[in-house]
Design brief:
Helix 12 packs across helix 14 (314-325) and helix 15 (329-339) packs across helix 16. The strands form three sheets. A six-stranded mixed sheet has the order 2-1-5-6-10-9, with helices on both faces. It is globular and about 60 Å long. It contains 16 helices and ten strands. The protein has helices at residues 34-45, 105-116, 127-133, 149-155, 181-194, 196-206, 219-225, 229-232, 236-245, 253-259, 264-275, 279-297, 302-308, 314-325, 329-339, 359-370, and strands at residues 20-28, 57-62, 68-69, 75-76, 88-93, 120-123, 141-142, 160-161, 167-169, 173-176. The chain is 39% helix and 9% strand. It is an alpha/beta fold. It starts with 19 loop residues before the first strand and ends in a 53-residue tail after the last helix.
Length: 423
């Protein structure tokens, strides 16, 4: 589900006088995918006042020296350079061309300066990597394309990466998941600025739903079952598809390499170049996600879940599950069921009085709080590993601060508790 910010960030900044929120700068780079780049251009660059959509002023800015070549060999010429960002109250960075490349320093400086002066900064899909490189995601929740979430979390461990959201609104910094989720985030921005009627009118013009959620899309299904565009036509696609269909079996990366007719070393290198993730960590992540689904939807014991997800023992499941999701499988199941609305009833209060709870309920409530932003879906977030001295896999490396029970004034782990309808 998408996540809205219900609270203003601690470091909220006043918008500089020369900047106006309705002036939107879109930062384009050479090699960027044309679809993601076109989303903010279409949403903010067309006058639809006749349909009841307030007008934005669009500034298309080149993030580096021209010419800008996009997918399909098209060549673009942006009418503005980085200097135009100084007038914008909203700056959008569409998908970055490669998660292995560093963004231009001049563009990062322009983004930092815009943020310091109160501008709203938006990253679509892998545009989150640009925001992270600028230091704008430090200590914040964020999302990106699910296939690249482990890489983002490993490279920027201070970012709380959540690949299960369509978008994350943290006040003055917003990020969206892959590809079409950028439309959801742009509609959310219009809704925030001008209300639901304007956003709904724009959605009708674009012929898209005004609000989508992960559950509407079966997001948990395609999150881990689909293949990214980069691998879809590659010979490895068949091997990856086979692995996803046989997660209940015990096999390792050597088995996958053999199916691809490659050495382990070649397979590792090829897999990482296509997905941004090591094959071993990818396989572990898929098994944990499968365990998460079974814990949510079945009454299998933890031991049975371990066996049905290909783990060699329940101990292995518990260790990997805790590292990726920050709680034991049993605590996660209890938290999920505690937070799940029953028969349309409102969700229970986050923190009832301790006197009304047994120790077992206290532990479940604490686990539920840690997963409060997950509501029905769960998160790909991680807390501190159980053994700090043990080498950690390169999974989701985001860290959630522990919130002691009874400290009601503490800031929520993730901004944006779902207390109102979300986009």
């Amino acid at each position: 589900m998408s996540q809205d910010s219900a609270a203003v960030p601690d470091a909220a900044r006043k918008l500089a006088a020369r900047r106006r929120r309705e002036i939107v700068a879109v930062l384009l780079f050479s090699g960027g995918p044309i679809f993601e780049s076109s989303i903010p251009l279409s949403v903010f660059g067309i006058d639809r006042q006749d349909a009841g959509v307030p007008r934005y002023r669009l500034l298309v800015c080149a993030g580096e020296d021209a010419p800008l070549r996009t997918t399909g060999g098209l060549e673009l010429s942006a009418p503005y350079g980085l200097e135009a960002i100084s007038r914008a109250g909203t700056v959008v960075v569409p998908a970055w061309r490669s998660i292995t490349q560093a963004p231009p320093p001049a563009a990062l400086d322009a983004l930092r300066r815009a943020h310091e002066e109160g501008a709203r900064i938006v990253g679509l899909c892998t545009g989150a990597f640009v925001l992270a490189a600028a230091g704008l995601l430090d200590g914040r929740p964020a999302t990106t394309h699910w296939m690249y979430a482990p890489t983002l979390a490993k490279r920027y461990p201070s970012v709380h990466v959540d690949p299960r959201e369509l978008f994350v609104d943290d006040g003055d910094v917003l990020t969206s998941a892959g590809t079409a989720a950028g439309i959801d985030l742009c509609l959310h921005i219009v809704r925030t600025d001008h209300g639901a009627d304007a956003a709904n009118a724009l959605a009708r013009r674009l012929v898209v739903p005004p609000r989508r959620t992960a559950s509407d899309l079966g997001h948990q299904r395609y999150l881990d079952r689909s293949l990214p565009e980069e691998i879809g036509a590659d010979p490895l696609a068949e091997v990856v598809a086979w692995a996803l269909e046989h997660l209940h079996e015990q096999f390792d990366v050597e088995t996958l390499a053999a199916r691809a007719y490659m050495s382990r070393r070649t397979f590792d290198r090829r897999f990482r170049s296509l997905t941004g993730s090591a094959p071993l960590q990818w396989l572990i992540t898929q098994r944990v996600l499968q365990a998460q689904r079974l814990l949510e939807t079945s009454d299998y014991s933890v031991d049975e879940v371990a066996g049905r997800c290909g783990f060699r023992s329940p101990v292995a499941l518990r260790g990997h599950f805790r590292r990726q999701l920050g709680a034991s499988p049993a605590a996660y199941r209890a938290a999920y069921r505690a937070r799940r609305p029953q028969n349309g009833a409102p969700e229970p209060a986050l923190r009832p009085e301790r006197a009304d709870r047994s120790p077992e309920r206290e532990r479940a409530a604490l686990a539920a709080e840690r997963f409060s932003a997950a509501a029905l879906g769960g998160h790909g977030l991680a807390a501190e590993a159980v053994d700090a001295g043990r080498p950690q896999p390169e999974g989701y490396a985001a860290r959630l601060p522990e919130t002691p029970v009874g400290r009601g004034a503490a800031r929520p782990v993730l901004p944006g508790q779902r207390e109102r309808p979300v986009g």
